[in-house]
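ERR on first pass: missing label on line 2. Operator R.T. fixed the label and resubmitted. Corrected input:
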Amino acid sequence: MRTVRAETLKLRRSTAWVVVLLLPVAVAFMACLNTLTSGEPLEDGWHTLWVRVAGFHALFPLALGVALLASLMWRPEHKGGNWNALMGGPTTSGSIVWAKTVTLWLLTLTMQAVLLVLVVAVGRLAFGLDGFLPGQYLVATVVSGIGVLPLVALQSALSLFVRSFAGPVAIALVGAGASVVAQQMAGDLALLSPYSVATRTLHLSSGVFGDAGTLAPGIVTLLVGASLAWLLVINTVGARVLDGRDVRV
Amino acid sequence: MSSIVATTDLTKRYGSTTVVDGLDLAVPEGSVYGFLGPNGSGKSTTMKMLLSLVQPTSGEVLLMERPMNRATRRGLLAHVGSLIEAPPGYGHLTGRENLRLAQRLLGLSERQVDQAVRTVRLQDHLDKKVRNYSLGMKQRLGIALALAREPRLLILDEPTNGLDPAGIEEIRELMRRLASRGTTIMVSSHLLGEIDKTATFLGILSQGRLIFQGSRADLFQAATPDVVLRCSDPPAAHRLLAARVPSTLTGQELHLAGLGDHHVAACVDTLVSHRIGVFDVRRREQSLEDVFRDLTAGGRL
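pass 2 clean. output:
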């Protein structure tokens, strides 16, 4: 807990907040623009809007956002003498890995919350939809809070071990793209990719990209289980590898 | 005096290159241990092995009489402050925020942080972002971060690198103050003059090997200074002695290298028995710099 509180202090004046705010805004803006220019109205009201904003967000912008946040979060650690100080201090490798994962997770949750608020705002204000976002999508958003964990842990690990800023971001884009294709071809076997889990949870109950259109307890349990398993595996391996590695000479 | 740092046959090889070769270091508790050597002699790598930042190829490190390795390091590092290569610090945060971060992370008290800040005299610059700090200020912040946990051992790798003379003097003064409070300091430098007056103990590294370790007095003793001799007939004296000892004739003076006290007496005896009057026999004054240069140039003692 102490390490997480220390990590959150590092986020002061961090560029990460720009990503947290601007990425969902860009996604929502593009969805609006698409709807307006294509001339296709929101046939099914909130459902169509959700698919166009959150459904699109899940395909690759989410992975891009998490990758950017991870690289921004790890960048200061790779600068100057910070890496030597980090590895030359009493904080265990496990604590370092978990604190970074939790911090990145909190940033990601904030980004997702911004997106949720934007979907509702766009629906009510831009498209004059009545009522509120259907409850099933709120559930999907909550489940996606768990579903992003594999993505969060993986990107944090990549930005920990790869000093370059852009490298892990590129990996995220390729991984997310490949996972969308895998989902189309292999269905839920694609959950063997950490990128698929996050995408899949945001598509829950939307009826697109292979989703059945209902919130079946079976798939929700599978997603939560896969998320926690991925999280545990990635962070355990990450901490082990970090502990065995030498600093650069 | 017990050793707070002790290594046995500490070695690091990268491929076929041996960077650190069989070091047996012993840093006495409470000392200021000057770790000297030219650039590239393996000082940084050694310090990284002491901190377990780099794993040795062979050999062992004992910190506070306990083995230092990947299983034990985090526990031992709670008592060790270090500054390796560039000073740490998050540029987008102020000095105060950087310190608060360390405070939260290590569960330190306000008093500990305050004291560390006052020790490095950084209290007037805490609200500035670290990216706007001068190198000297960054260095002091780095030391404050290392000091805040009140370590028993402080490992500083070239802390005066890139500092102006005032900054260098400040770091020296800081080391003296810390040492007087009982903190053991191991400090590396490629310039003898920088730590000469501060260090109570010296270790000299050359091409990865420890060529000397001991007190300053030991060092002078180990490297025997030349004997300078004046007499009534220098050329004749030179002819007489050159067969037995390395002798050079410089003007009216004879320089005899590497002579122990008994050899000096024997040489004087020879000259007197050949009826050459000996006016004056003395040891050449030698600075620590000369000794250091002789040792590192020769590669061995």
